[in-house]
Amino acid sequence: MDGFMASAATGVMRSLLAKLGELLGEDYKMHRGMRREIAFLKDELSSMNVLLERLADSETLDPQTKEWRDQVREMSYDIEDCVDDYMRQLQNEPQRHSGITGFFFGYVQKVKDLVTRHEIAEQIQELKARIVEASHRRKRYKIDDTVNFGGINVIPVDRRLPALYAELGGLVGISVPRDEVIKLVDDGVQGVKVVSIVGCGGLGKTTVANQVYKNIAEKFDRQAFVSLSQNPDMVIIFRSILSQVKKDEGDSTSSRDKELLISELRDFLKDKRYLIVIDDVWSTQAWKTIKFALVENTCGSRIIVTTRIGTIAKSCSSPFHDLIFELRMLNEDDSKRLFFRRIFGSEDKCPHQLKEVSVEIIKKCGGLPLAIITMASLLTTKSYTRADWLKVCDSIGSGLEKNSDVEEMNMILSLSYNHLPHHLKTCLLYLSMFPEDYVIKRDYLVRRWIAEGFVSAHGRRNLEDEGECYFNELINRSLIQPVDFQYDGRVYACQVHDMILDLITCKAVEENFVTVVTNRKQMLPSHGKVHRLSLEYHDLENLRANPIVTTHVRSLNIFRYSEGMLPLSGFRSLRVLDLDGNENLENCYLEDIGKLFQLRYLRIKSSNITLPERIGELQCLVILDLLNCLNLGELPTSIVELRHLKWLIVPRMNLPDGVGNMQVLEFLSLIVVDYTTSTSLLQELGSLTKLRTLELDWRINPLHRDKKTYEDNFVSSLGKLGSSNLRYLTLISPWPLDFLLEPWSPTPHLLQELVIKGWHLSKIPVWMVSLTNLTYLDVEVKVRQETLQILGDFPALQFLKLCSNAAGSEVRCLVVSNNEFRCLKKFIFVGWVNMMFKEGAVPVLETLEFQIIVHEVQTACRFGPPDFGISHLSTLRNLVVNVHCEGSRVKEVEALEAAIRSAASMLPNYPTLALHRFLESELGFSSGKPKAIHES
C-alpha cells in the first residue's frame, strides 16, 4: 500500500496504475480474460497520465482541454473504487472447509463469488468503454497539441513593476529592512559578497532590494537591476545586464550566444566595483549560470539576490549564511498604517462604524503587504456600510471574493504554487481541509498525507521521514508558516496564511479536490461528486438545503459536533476519517464503522467514547489515533486483528493479548502494564521488530508476587526491540526501573530520544555513553559533578532535561566545564543546587532554564563570576532563571538579577530573558507564589 501515490492534478491516477500493476502480479489469480482487460486499462491510463501531468504544468488551458482533463480525472476515481472492491474480494476469499458442511458452504460461497465477479466484470466493461471514449475525444480535440504548442504560459506584464517604481513616501515598514540589508552590503570588505533577501511572495522583497539599490548604487562604478522569471531566457538577462553596466560606452550587443555574453561580461567587470541585483531567483541552476558571468574581483563588488526559496538563498550566499536577510511580515502598527493610508489617508479619517471590521481584515492579512494593499484596493470599491465590509472580511480564506485586485494578488502568489512539483502541489492543496488559523502539527499532517497516499517512499527514508521532507520543503518555499520549533530547530507545527488559504481553496475546488462546508460557506464541486469533505458547523441548515452525495467521499473531516451528523453507513468509499473536537459524539455513531472496508486512517477527538468491537474488521487501517479521547473505554480485543496497523496512538490504555499479530506496528503509545496485563503480552511485545516508537507506563508494584516474571519478560522484549528499530522510548513509572536499565543488552544503538519519568535514577547507566545517536534525554537523576561530566561527553546530545531531587549537602555548585556538551542546544535543569558555566562550555546552546539559590551565591561565586557564567554563552537566544529567595535579603536578590540582566544584555543574540522569583515571602512580598519578570 505504501507505493500508491495520489495527486491533485491527476486524481488518483498514479495510485490506480500501481494497483493495476499489482493486480497483474502473481499474488492475484485471475482468469485470462480479466487479466487482458486489466492490462488494457493500465496501458491506456498510463498514456493518459503522462498527458495529465503535462497539462498540470500549464498555467492556463482552453475550456475544451480543461473539460477533457476533468472528465479523465473523475474517471480515475471511479476506476479505483471498482478496483479496490475487486482487490478486496480477491483478498478476502474464505478458506474452504472439509466434509458435507464444508461442501455446502463452499457451494454457496462459489455462487456468491460468481455473482460478485460478474458484477465487477460488468463494471470494468463500462469503465473500459469510458476510457476508449476518452481516448477518442483526446484525438478528436487534439488535446496533445495544447501542450506541444507553447504560448499558454506567457505573462504579458511583469507584475513587479509597481514595486520597482514605488515612491518611498507611499511605503510602510520599509526603512528597517532596507537599512539592515545596506549594513550587510556596505561593510567595506574588498571581495565579492552575495546578500540574499528571502521571503514569501507579496512580502516586498523586490521593493526592499530596489530601495537598497537606489540608496547605494552611486557608490559603485557599475550597476544593474534585472528580474527573472520562473524559466528565464539567460541570453536576454545577460544582454540586459551588459546594457546597464556599459551605460553609454557603446551600443548594446545583439549577440544570441550565451557563452560570448558571459565572456564579455566577465571581461568588462573584472576591474570594476559593481552592484548587481538579481530579483526573483527560482532555481539554483539559474543562479549558477548567472554567477559564471559575475567575475570575482577585489574591488568590493556586491550582488543582491531576492528569492522565495530558503535553499536558493543559502546557495547564493554560501558559505556565508549570515548574509541571508529573512524578510518578515509587517507588525500590527505598520499594517494598520499601510491599510488606512491606502483607503482614507490616515487612521483618524476611518469612519467609526468601520474601525472594528478594519482591524479584523488587517489581522487576516497577516502582515503581508501585498494582501493589505489588495484588500485596501478592493474596499475602495465598496460603500462605507459595515455589512459590505463584513462580507469582504468573511470571504478572506474562502476563495469566494472575485475582484481584479484579488485576482492580481492570486496570480502573484500562484507563481510559488506553479513552481511546485506535482506531489507538493497535492500536499499544499490538502491544507484547504483545515479551518482558518488552525495550528497543524507536523506529525499529524504527515500521517494524514501518508493515509491519503500523497507520500511515496524514496531511497532509505521511510514514509514518515519522506513526509517530513515534504513539510520542510513547503516551509522552505514560504508557503506555510512555522509557528513552533523543536529543540533541534525542526518545525513542530505550522499555519496557513489566510491569503494562501484563499488561493489553495480556489484551486482545490477547481480541481474538485476538496469540498468545504461551514456555517458561513458551502463550496460544492461543479462535477457533483465529492472526494474530500471538510465540515465545520453547529447545525445542518446548509447541508439540508444542498444535500451532499457521500458515496464517493474518500476523506471526511468533521470539526465540532452537530446533532444529526451524516451517518457513516453512507461513506462506503471512505479512506480517511477525522472526528476533531466532537465532544458529544455518541457511541452509536461508530456502530457502522466496520463497513468502511477501505479505511486507512481513523482519528477521534472526543470524550466518553468506546470503540466498537467491529474495529477489527478494518483490515486496511494503517493509523489509529485516539490520543485526544478523554475517558476512553477499554480497547476492544479485536484491535489485535489489524494486521496493517502501523500507528497505534492511545491515552494510557491496556492492550489485549495478541499484540504479536500486529507485525508492521511502528508507533505504540501510550500503553499501560499493570497487574491486569498478562506476562505473555510482554513477550509478544518483543516480536514487534519494526517498532520505532514505544511509550509505556510501568505500574507493576515491586511487591507483586509475579514481579520477577514481568521484569524478565520486559527486559527480554526491550532488548530485542533495542537491537531492531527502536528509536524513541518513553518510560513512566512510580517504581524504580533499575532492573531494566542496568542490564540492557545489547545496547540500543539506534536510540535517538529517551524519556524516563516518575522516578529518580541513582546514576546514569554506563552503556548510555555509547549511544552515538542519542539527541534527546529527559531523566530524573541524582545529579553530582561526575553526572555532568558523563553527560557532557555524549556525542550527539542536543536536548537535555535533568530533574534532581537532591545533589547532596556537600555540593554547593555544579560546574559545566570547557568542551562539555558540544552539541547541546537546549538545557533545562531543575534541582536545589547552583550551576556555573565555564568559558568554552555548551558552545552552541540556544535555550537555558535553570535556578539560582540566592543564599548559596557567595559560596558558588568562588567558582566564577556572579552571573554564573551566562556571559560565556555567546549563542544563547532564550534564558529562564528561577531565583530562589529563601534565606536571602532583598539587596542580594536585586544584585543577582542585575548581574544576570547585565550579562544577558551583552550577548550577541540579545536573548529573551525571564526571571522568576520563588519563596520570596521573607523579602516582604505578601504572596509566596513565584513572580515572573519577562525581559528582552
From TrEMBL:
Cited InterPro entries: Apaf_helical (IPR042197), Disease_R_plants (IPR044974), LRR_dom_sf (IPR032675), LRR_R13L4/SHOC2-like (IPR055414), NB-ARC (IPR002182), P-loop_NTPase (IPR027417), RX-like_CC (IPR038005), Rx_N (IPR041118)
GO biological process, alphabetically ordered: defense response to bacterium; innate immune response-activating signaling pathway; plant-type hypersensitive response
Chain ranges of the Disease resistance R13L4/SHOC-2-like LRR domain: 552-913
Pfam families linked to this entry: LRR_14 (PF23598), NB-ARC (PF00931), Rx_N (PF18052), WHD_DRP (PF23559)
Domain NB-ARC, first and last residues per copy: 189-344
Highest taxon listed in the record's lineage: Eukaryota
Entry coiled-coil feature ranges: 117-144
Domain annotation Disease resistance N-terminal: ranges: 12-98
Keyword DNA damage: no
Gene Ontology terms, MF aspect: ADP binding
Domain Disease resistance protein winged helix: 433-504
Keywords in alphabetical order: Coiled coil, Leucine-rich repeat, Nucleotide-binding, Plant defense, Repeat
Entry-linked Gene3D superfamilies: 1.20.5.4130, Helical domain of apoptotic protease-activating factors, P-loop containing nucleotide triphosphate hydrolases, Ribonuclease Inhibitor, Winged helix-like DNA-binding domain superfamily/Winged helix DNA-binding domain
Similarity-based family: Belongs to the disease resistance NB-LRR family.
The protein's name: Uncharacterized protein
Organism name: Miscanthus lutarioriparius
